[in-house]
Structure formats: C-alpha cells, structure tokens
Request: fold
Amino acid sequence: WTDIQPAIDHIVIFLQRIYNRGERPIVFNTYQTYLKGMVGTVQRDLESARREGWHFGAKVVRGAYMVSEREKARLRGVQSPICDSYEDTEANFHAAIDAILSDDATHGNSKSVTELLVASHSRTSIEYTVRRMEELQKNREHVHFGQLLGMADNLTFTLGANGYKAYKYVPYGPIDEVVPYLIRRTQENSTLLGSASVREERGLIREELWRRLRPI
Reply:
C-alpha cells in the first residue's frame, strides 16, 4: 500500500486545492497512523492548507495493511514502515488527531477551516477526542466520528445521542472484494478483541439478546 499512497496523496491534495475553497472542505484525505512519521505528514498538509488558503479535511485511521506491509518490507530487506507496537500506533493516532483539532486554536486568524473524521472503534480514542474537543472548544460541526456497521454500536449511538456527528459505515460490493476488506478490519482490530471496551460491548450485546428473547 505504501507503494501507491504517495500518488494517492498527490491526487487528493490537487483536488483539495480546487474544491476545498467554499465554506467547508469537500475532499478529505485519509491518514493511516500505523505508518511511522504520519504526524509530520498531517502537519505538512495543514501548513499547505493555511499557506494556500484552502480548507483541510482529514479522515484519521489506525490502518489496515500492517501484515502485508511488514511482509513486503521483510522480503525487500528494508525497515518496516509500520509502528513497532499497538501503543506506538495509538500514540501516533492521538497525536495526529491533536494536531488537527488544535490547528484552529493555534492559527485563529487563518481563513482555512479544518474538519476531522475520527474512524475508530476504540473507546479510549473516542473519549480522548471528545475531551480534546472540549478543552480546545472545537466546533462540533467540524468533527465527525465513524464506525463500521455492527461494530462499536454502543459508541456510535452514545455519540449521536449527545449531539456529536456519528456515522455508520456500510461495506457493500462483490463478495470477493468485501470479505478481504472485512478480514483486514479484523486484523486491524485484533489487538482490541480482548480489551475492556470490547468485553463491555459483548456484555451489552448479551443483555440486549436476553431482553429480546425473554418472554414478555
């Protein structure tokens, strides 16, 4: 994936320069924070948006190609571009979010607007983002949250019920394309499967199943 990502980034920046000059950004770039140095990339693009006068839009994710990227680096005999641990990836993820959220506060006189979509099933990361939004007094209209349909529904519903912009992402397409995609999502979230937040979600699902199956 890293072989083609620079080309994708170049195309997205080109389109942002054209279409992100209205009231708010239309074109968003995706930043995969399991890659080392991604925070620097975010800061570079934020600076370009301020300097050139267009609105910055970003979707921040942890990433889903870690297995294939590590294997490719091993076969090529080069250093892996992937963060060494889940903790490093999470720190990178939060640092990228913080850079975007704090941009308006740091550059209050800039004409560029920043918008952020936090794509995460981690309760820790969602709570971190909400807390930073409150500390920086970030406009809720400029921050969005997204989770896959059927995953972390308790987070999505809670965000929506409290006035945050929360979305459910529905994978759709041919089986031979959708299934590999979902497998990558499983690999991406494998570290979370035994976490306290996942155990909590499983408990909520069991309670809801019992409520629906229990005789009235």
